Amino acid sequence: MATASLLGRLRRSRRLSLLLFAGSLIALVIAATWFIAARTGLARSYDQLSNRNQLLAQAQMAQQEAQLKVENARSAQQVMDRLSALGLQPEGWGERMINLRSTQLSRDESAALLAGIAAGPDRLFGAEAFELSVTNPAEGLFHLPVLVDERIPAPLQVTLRGSLLFRTGPADDNGIASTSTTGASQP
Predict the structure, then answer these.
(1) How does pLDDT run across 92-101, given as a tens digit for each residue?
(2) pLDDT recorded at residue 183
């Protein structure tokens, strides 16, 4: 009987061990499934956080751009008010863009061009780029070349880019603009 009870206890203990093992295995599978789902949810949450931070940065940049545009509009309005106070009406001015890139001109043509953009009461020139150079190193930019053997002096190389503002309307009575309203007011 002692051996029978011992065998009975072993069988019961095997069943109990198998039941405990099966229960532990099921609990482990459930915990692993929960862990994988939680880790996937955490990755999704980090992805959403990253997207929201990117949207926030874009919104902040758009807000700064909008504030800059508002400041520029205020500044432009102040400039317009100051021009009106001085008697300079913006609608009385025209604009012509000048863009010469490495153009070769004779000295006479260069002088006429520079005289045409010189500031005066009826025109203003805002240069973005200006370069004037000689094409022959033996000739100087500020000294007229000596004619040897009736040879024509080498041309000058001109780069000029900018806006020429010129008066289009009649002259004001306050003396700011020139009194000439003929075709000489346009370049």
Answers:
(1) 778 888 888 8
(2) 42
pTM: 0.45
Nearest to 94 by CA among 174, 182, 161, 164: 164
Q: Is 79 left (phi over 0), alpha (psi -120 to 50) or beta?
A: alpha
pLDDT at res. 149:
63
* Of residues 153, 113, 151, the one with CA closest to residue 132: 113
d(CA 184, CA 179) in angstroms, rounded, equals 11
Judged against a pLDDT cut of 90, whether residue 124 lies above it is answered with: no
3-state DSSP percent of the chain in helix, strand and coil, to 5? 55, 20, 25
What pLDDT is recorded for position 84?
A: 78
The predicted pLDDT at position 168 comes to 81
> What's the pLDDT score for residue 184?
43
Task: Write a three-state SS string for the chain.
Answer: CHHHHHHHHHHHHHHHHHHHHHHHHHHHHHHHHHHHHHHHHHHHHHHHHHHHHHHHHHHHHHHHHHHHHHHHHHHHHHHHHHHHHHCCCHHHEEEEEEEEEEEEECHHHHHHHHHHCCCECCEEEEEEEEEEEECCCCCCCCCCCCCCCCCCCCCEEEEEEEEEEEECCCCCCCCCCCCCCCHHHCC
